[in-house]
Batch of 4 targets.
Target 1
Amino acid sequence: MKKLLLTLILFVNVMFFGFETLLPSGEVLDEGILKIDTITPGVAAIRYGLFGIMEVGVSTSNGGAYIKVGSNKMGDLPLAGSVSFGFEGVESAHIIGNISYISDSLKLSVGTDYTQKMETEFNETTQEPKTIIDSYFNIFGGLNYLISSDEKTDKFLNIEVTTGFKSNGTEYGIAGYIYGIQSFKKFWLFNKVNVFGGLAVVNPSIPPNILENFRVVFGLNTEINLFGNK
């Protein structure tokens, strides 16, 4: 009964969680792994690993439908890196690059996101529509620290920051996230189930505006080994 209830919760989250932006990952899913992300404010995604070097899916953090190519280890160095291309129809496109240092208890990541968006402006006099293409740059980084580990669960602390601006300098934004993750190992059909909880601060101001500046981080993600060897 408990397993059935959790399974229902997982799929309800997929259907109803918000679609905003969280920091992309530099790692690539292993071959045959299906991953579902349902975190707010931030990520709604379905991802799949191909060939051990490629990942495809639909994700808010990767700009819609996307393809990612990379490696989870660069020779003998504990580094993972990837480049992805994502698009939402003809309205926007993202090119995202990310590199991560990974040890037994720590992961440090840094990346950048170049975005082009098609927008419509109206002439104030004639009210005729005019289509323009704007460019945006985003720089992000994060720390993931393993607090504790046992046979059933891992516990992590995440601290992430992202900042972005429009190429003409008219728009600027910054956000920070601090949250914990409890990772349950090998649950029923799932390789793992991760539960997220914490706080996001968006465009902080002095004095702080509680309605506009703060968000609760909450959600789940899961991994299922569909056709992989692990």
Target 2
Amino acid sequence: MFWWVLYYGVFKLQIVTQKDEIHHYLATAQPKVEVEVVLESKPKIQAETEAIKESIPDVTATISHSKYIDLLQDLMANKQLYKNPLLSRLDLANELGISEGYLSQAVNKVTGKNVIQFVNEYRVSLVKELLSNPEFDKYSIEAIYSEAGFNSKSVFYNSFKAETNMSPGMYRKSYTKAS
């Protein structure tokens, strides 16, 4: 029993260490221009939201769903909100200045998915990018999916398989053989 606990602790420490290395690599590999875009985009999005609210009396009833989805996609791309494993519908709704219910309705009507599926698509996209990059071959799949914002192995595997029709290991091998 002692050895199992020791092994498990060392294994988890290794995953956390790898996740930190991936995070550091991604943070330093991003050009400074993207950081400026992120810093510039929040005031722009907030200004757009405020302008819409001021010009239309009942925003949630009259603005199109697709406008909020466009804003949400900008937030996901620029701020990488999906990397937060504790990200909730409320967090996203607050970023957009709308209610959780309206967010769910907008995502469902425009994309045909629920909010969790929408967020997980961004996470899977990042995992696919990292698994296909030879520089990340030294990291475990668990460290990579943790960095992408997944906090559950089963949710990650189900989301990944639904999008790619293969397991993460098979996906990685397909890129290892190709290079």
Target 3
Amino acid sequence: MMPIKVVLQLLLFALVFTLFTTRQTHGEKDCYRQKLVIKFKCWETIKLGVPYVAPSQECIRLIRRSDMVCICRAITEEDEEEISVAKLLQLADECNKSVPFGTKCGCKYHILYSYSFCSKIVSYIIYVNKYNGVKFVSQLTPFDHHYLRHQGYIHETS
């Protein structure tokens, strides 16, 4: 029979191993498969580096059935090398599935003024001016700049 000390050590090891290998946190929905389906079915609309394209009816139906908050939380840096979070948020908005203000969507940052940015951009292009507005200095794609201006998040100042 094993001494109690050895049994406790094995139990502790099993607990630590389980904590580090479990992808989901307690209570978190698993929507990684749903995210992959959206990436596939809505690819033409959300792909990075090209202008926004109107979504297909299949894409719209899929977005309307999806939990966009969960999908936003599931977006990784690897996903952001392929898709535009800005386009995904616009798509969700057009399908009446807007992501609430303050929701984490991609990378490490929460949505800023209902719009999500990757940490690589946020860290050096945005600063708050004396009017508590946001000024965008550089590094936005033309699509992102146009979308933000259209939504009223960018106010050109001289």
Target 4
Amino acid sequence: MNKLNHYISLFITLIPVLVCGCSGVPAPSERTVHFSCSYETGAHEAVFVTGETPELGGNDITRALKMVPEIDDGSLRWSLNVYIPRGGDIKYKYLLRDDRIDRLCDTANGKILSMNDLCISAGGNPRLDAVKIPVKTGEIYRGSITGYVIETQHITATENINSKKGRGVQVYLPPGYYEHPQARYPVLYMHDGQNCFREGGPFGSWKAEQVADQLIADSQIEPIIIVAVDNSPDRFAEYVPRFSRDHIVNDNYNLFLTGELKPWVDSHFRTLPDPAHTAILGSSLGGIASLIAGLDYSDTYGIVGAMSPSLWTGTTMRRLLRGELPGSVRLYLDAGDSNDGAEAVFFLRDELLRRGRVLNNDLAFELGCQQRHNEAAWHARLPRFLRFAFPVRAG
């Protein structure tokens, strides 16, 4: 007979367990909640946790968080560390679910194992550089997009304007940029720039400017600058170091991004140039390019987003599993549930959690239900990445 033992505690050194009726105000770094239970599962079964808060999936069974299995004294223990910043009473429950990818978006896939209550008293975390822009009710202020050509000695030129040859980039400036001349902004660098804005290229568009405008208007993210970098006929070699020649081309692409493009952006726009405010994002091979940038330039990119990453290419997966990505780099991973390599992304997620990363803190993961490997899916999941990368801070 399966036997469930569940535990809940704050994952804090020398801090007592907090349950309902708790008192005190833990510091922001002390709001990592450790979920743990013992349950013997069968084939294709896993234990999930869900609850009322968005961090626990908002009681949406398709967004429940899969826990990580480990053998503890001969028994199977499921555990998960989740960052939950808000205070108050939280109801959560453990679920037994079929964890095959094609079943995870089935709302009937789940059996409640235990329902519990938790009380977290959370303190504030003011951010002095946060930019507040008033938005009228029912009105969304729009950002602006401008195209540029960045001269480069490292990679293939894609544009030739006024005798200037270089790589084409498009820069999105958030609403209020010109109205707030003292404000400085985080920056998101995106690969495959032709598909990032407006109607995009032949494969569709992320419509990143529309997503950012809406999230900024709703005060769900800080205002940000987005720099979308065009790809080139050398896209595979630039994004994925696989063979000796590709290592050279990929290194040159990263040298362009880090040594030529970023200094240009920082000198022409009011940026917050430190790693904590600099993100890089891509999908598919662009997801691999982002992971490599985080691995090789962690002192530049403090936030890395890899949507539907092509983990079958190159040595990126092995490097991540060896622990080469510093803990200071916050990582976002996702995949669709339909022919999108979700099994490999789930495997990477679980291994990183075993190594100490915390969901919603330095690691985020999203599974896109009924989503395939295309721009429409990445557009749909872009808000999740932006809320993780650039949350509005209190203060």
